[in-house]
Amino acid sequence: MDFLFNQNVQFYLAAYLLGGIPFGLILAKLFAGVNITDAGSGSIGATNVLRVVKETNPALAKKLGAATLALDAFKGIAVVLAAKYFGMSDSVQWLVAVLAVVGHCFSPYMWFEGGKGVATGMGVMAVMLPIPTAIALVVWGVAAKTIRISSLSSMLGLLGLIIASFVLYPSMFHAPVLFIAFILFYKHIPNFVRLFKGEEKRVV
Length: 204
Hints:
Elements: H1 7-19, H2 23-32, H3 46-54, H4 58-85, H5 90-105, H6 118-128, H7 130-146, H8 150-168, H9 175-187, H10 189-197
């Protein structure tokens, strides 16, 4: 068990465990009395919190959706900033970022189920790649306003981030970025299926 006293390992465990906190599930249960995993898309993310709670309390739904989005992003930001503060190497910081996203998408508190990972992914990327993340947020914002389909808007934003990272940092080791992108894409497969069937709901 000596490896648990290794600082890198401690950061990896903290990233996974903090990333796995299902804030959307907690907030919806605590303030709206609903289990969002049993309603809507079943996701623990901000979009499903907004969609499910809106059915009974539209004003509360906006607040809980915004809080979920902020907290999911913050947990990604927090663990990477902590790794930077303690002088961890770039490779350790990237693994911390990856594990925070993995924790959210495959939460240890939910029998390894979880959310789509977009907010947490954007949180870690905001610290590691701020300019590509800003570009991604612009792409996401435009898509969200015009298409109004959350999953598609998120994936277009993710694509914008990947392209921007390759253009702006061509010599960077992109494996962690691509791995996070793969996880987010994988978690959105059910959304793509519904999209092709014409069943994916718009955000209104």
